[in-house]
Design goal:
Helix content is about 45%, strand content about 15%. By secondary structure, it is of the alpha+beta class. The protein has a 4-stranded antiparallel beta sheet, with helices on both faces.
């Protein structure tokens, strides 16, 4: 696919936080697999791939989640609801992070160079307590989510990022082991019922400073 600058801008102008989806329209598997691949290929700090994408298509599970997600209709009307789970304990576990470096034989052609990189990572990650680790990990999930929402708009799929939920109750319903994962955010994907509202943004000169 070759997108022009105008195509990309059009997608950004049409992308909006869709509050109500057509619950009769489902995203084709091929298209949703494509969005998941976009998420998988997203950048992350130290290349640690801090996310797990929990894809919820069960209507029963959506119905259970809606009351603890501020009763938002997009939870139950979307085609696919993705819970972005931020990794925690893995990030300090050598069994997880060492293979992430060892697979990069082209970047770290010798052991000494690789071990220096691993030591640098360990010094960085060990500064975090549990809360700090979760916050750092959650930030990375937002990168993957943003990429998936942008590309969704480019292929005609609507979305809505969701932070409004009761975290502890969501994690209980999803059966998460919170030593390993915590919920970062949801994104609902599907097809809108209503046209998007006008987009309001500050002008570029209010947002950008050159030095």
């Amino acid at each position: 696919m070759n997108f022009s600058k105008d195509d990309i801008l059009k997608a950004f102008y049409e992308r909006h936080a869709c509050k109500l989806f057509d619950d009769k329209k489902k995203i084709p598997k091929e298209d949703f697999d494509f969005l998941l691949e976009i998420g998988r290929l997203s950048p992350s700090s130290f290349g640690m791939e801090h996310w797990k994408f929990l894809v919820i298509t069960s209507q029963d599970l959506k119905e259970k989640l809606r009351p603890v997600c501020w009763n938002q209709p997009q939870i139950t009307t979307c085609s696919h609801l993705v819970a972005y789970l931020a990794k925690k304990s893995f990030l300090k576990n050598p069994d997880y992070y060492r293979p992430m470096y060892e697979r990069k034989s082209d970047i770290f052609p010798d052991v000494e160079l690789r071990e220096k990189a691993i030591k640098r990572y360990e010094n960085f990650v060990n500064q975090f307590d549990d809360r700090g680790l979760a916050c750092w990990s959650s930030k990375q999930c937002y990168i993957a989510a943003a990429n998936m929402m942008t590309v969704a708009a480019m292929i005609g799929i609507d979305s809505c990022p969701i932070e409004g939920f009761e975290k502890d109750k969501v994690e209980e319903i999803l059966g998460l082991d919170t030593k390993d994962y915590e919920i970062s955010m949801f994104v609902a994907f599907g097809y809108r019922v209503n046209p998007p509202s006008k987009k309001y943004r500050l002008p570029i000169d209010k947002l950008v400073e050159y030095r």
